[in-house]
Design a protein that fits this description.
Elements (H helix, E strand, L loop, with lengths): L6 H6 L14 H13 L5 H10 L1 H7 L10 H10 L2 H14 L8 E8 L12 E7 L4 E7 L6 H10 L7 E4 L6 H9 L3 E4 L6 H12 L9 H4 L2
Parallel strand pairs: 1-4, 4-5
Antiparallel strand pairs: 1-2, 2-3
Helix pairs in contact: 2-3, 3-5, 7-8
Length: about 230
């Protein structure tokens, strides 16, 4: 993807699942407002709508809105329930990556967290898995972990939309799996992962490397006396 591709062009490529009846606002305009508002710290549908309204009609027109009427919290609730979230996250990831220089974000830390304040009564909080580039202070990609899956499977999806060439991907023990490592290598990257009891054979092999002396070397004093 060329660095000149704009966010609006990427959002315009996302399929609009809505029917023509009752559709007031272009999908790309709604998504663009959501992205800009969230980058400004807005973290709810109501806050996104208020953010847009406070900046006026000229601002909304610039994002692609064709009418100032009907923008509300319910609109966003319906849209985000129906769109392809993976495609949306992929578009954002491509856009963010296009803003980085080739040598930026050489280290991507994969981690999953439950979004603070997202729990609503008996409805569990939104669990997200993210790729964070510490050297530029940015989340370059993020996916929601569906209730029917887990962090490991969501991480494989996340790797599929990340630029991995020349990158080092790190993560905790939950990602220390063959398919995760293979996906990173296939994408041209490398990995640095924690090993715990979920991989007992690998853990034992690593411990052996650090406890048994190499051939031709004397054992450490505490072993030599046994």
């Amino acid at each position: 993807m060329e660095a000149t591709t704009s966010l609006m062009e990427l959002l315009a490529g996302i399929h609009d699942p809505r029917g023509a009846r009752g559709k007031r606002h272009p999908l790309s305009a709604l998504l663009a407002l959501a992205v800009v508002a969230m980058l400004s710290g807005m973290n709810s549908y109501e806050a996104i709508v208020q953010f847009g309204k406070e900046r006026g009609w000229d601002f909304l027109k610039h994002l692609g809105f064709t009418t100032k009427w009907g923008l509300c919290k319910a609109t966003y609730s319906r849209v985000f329930r129906r769109i392809d979230i993976t495609a949306f996250e992929s578009a954002i990831s491509i856009w963010i990556s296009s803003q980085l220089a080739p040598d930026d974000a050489n280290h991507l830390a994969i981690d999953g967290k439950t979004l603070r304040g997202s729990r609503d009564g008996d409805t569990p909080g939104a669990h997200l898995i993210s790729a964070y580039a510490g050297d530029v202070g940015a989340v370059v990609a993020q996916l929601r972990v569906d209730a029917k899956t887990n962090e490991h499977k969501a991480a494989l999806q996340l790797l599929g939309i990340l630029p991995l060439q020349g990158k080092i991907v790190s993560g905790d023990a939950i990602f220390t799996q063959r398919d995760f490592c293979a996906e990173v290598i296939e994408g041209g990257g490398d990995y640095l992962l924690t090993v715990k009891e979920n991989q007992p054979t690998l853990l034992a092999d690593i411990k052996a490397c650090f406890t048994e002396p190499l051939e031709g070397f004397s054992p450490p004093p505490e072993l030599a006396t046994k």
